[in-house]
Write a structure and sequence with these properties.
By secondary structure, the protein is α/β, with parallel strands linked by helices. The protein is 43% helix and 14% strand. The structure holds BIS(adenosine)-5'-pentaphosphate (AP5).
């Protein structure tokens, strides 16, 4: 069954925005997706959201939404964050953590959550662990997607994103029905600023230096599930789902993350 798209208002716009009350699920999953830029985390988060009902919480989406908000200029910290993003660098930990902490209610969402693009540094991972421990929120698993570099570059260079609803396509592998037009909302599909080749190189180097060490961090906590990200999105989803069902502890017996 497919869950209706949750507009994620409280996540994208901040705690003053209200989400409609999400359905209570028998098993609310709390997951983190790890993996290099372009490996397909957003695509899988969308499938996991549709099929498990959990809310998709992407820090990149919060920054992009702030940059596009009509009629109100981004705050100085947000304007600086957008500059880091365009260059392919990480936004400073202090800015990211302030933004996540402000939205910490989303971690209590009764539908569960899928964190995508956060945490990305050891500092972020440690801060998240402390917060979740304090708030007695158990993490089910951290899914680490693995893919050879040539395939990642191919996925990023073909990515097209809807300028309005942020739906993600690929120019040749997951094309929209009408070229350059979003199937969902009919608006234009665009190349993301940070998918330009010079930014992609910086993003890959930054990933290796700052984010790859989190694999060991979560392995040591017994939460890591590695999944090969080759094949179609549905094949990868099937692998993810099988890994979760086999390896993630059952509800009520979970350790905190
Ligand atoms: P963010 O938005 O998190 O981007 P990212 O991690 O670089 O990941 P991407 O969105 O590029 O890729 P993805 O893995 O989601 O792949 P997708 O599903 O789109 O972050 C952007 C920036 O924000 C960062 O660089 C940083 O500046 C800042 N930022 C965000 N969070 C931060 C944090 N916590 N700390 C500091 N800074 C932060 O797929 C890619 C393409 O492949 C698509 O075209 C898709 O259609 C296609 N595709 C997907 N799956 C398949 C498949 N199986 N087969 C063929 N094609 C596929």
């Amino acid at each position: 069954m497919t869950a209706p798209a949750n507009k994620r208002a409280a996540w994208l716009e901040g705690p003053s925005a209200n989400c409609p009350t999400p359905p209570e699920l028998a098993r609310p999953w709390r997951l983190i997706l790890l993996g290099a830029p372009g490996v397909g985390k957003g695509t899988q988060a969308n499938l996991l959201r549709e099929r498990l009902g959990a809310c998709h919480l992407s820090t990149g989406d919060v920054f992009r939404a702030a940059g596009k908000r009509d009629g109100c200029a981004p705050s100085p910290a947000m304007a600086a964050a957008l500059g880091f993003m365009r260059r392919g660098e990480l936004v400073p930990d202090s800015t990211v953590w302030e933004m996540v902490r402000e939205r910490s209610q989303c971690l209590h969402c009764r539908s569960g959550f899928i964190l995508d693009g956060f945490p990305r540094t050891l500092m972020q991972a440690e801060s998240l662990k402390k917060l979740m421990d304090e708030e007695k929120l158990p993490l089910d698993a951290v899914v680490n997607y693995e893919l050879p570099m040539e395939e990642i570059v191919e996925r990023l260079s073909g990515r097209r994103t809807c300028e309005n609803c942020k739906a993600v396509y690929h120019a040749t592998r997951q094309p929209s029905k009408t070229a350059a037009v979003c199937d969902r909302c009919g608006r234009r599909l665009v190349l993301r600023d940070d998918d330009r080749p010079e930014s992609v190189i910086v993003r890959m180097e930054t990933y290796e230096r700052s984010t790859a060490p989190l694999i060991e961090f979560y392995r040591n906590l017994g939460l890591l599930l590695s999944v090969m990200a080759t094949g179609s999105p549905n094949e990868i989803y099937a692998r993810t789902s099988a890994a979760l069902e086999t390896n993630a502890p059952q509800s009520g017996q979970r350790d905190s993350g």
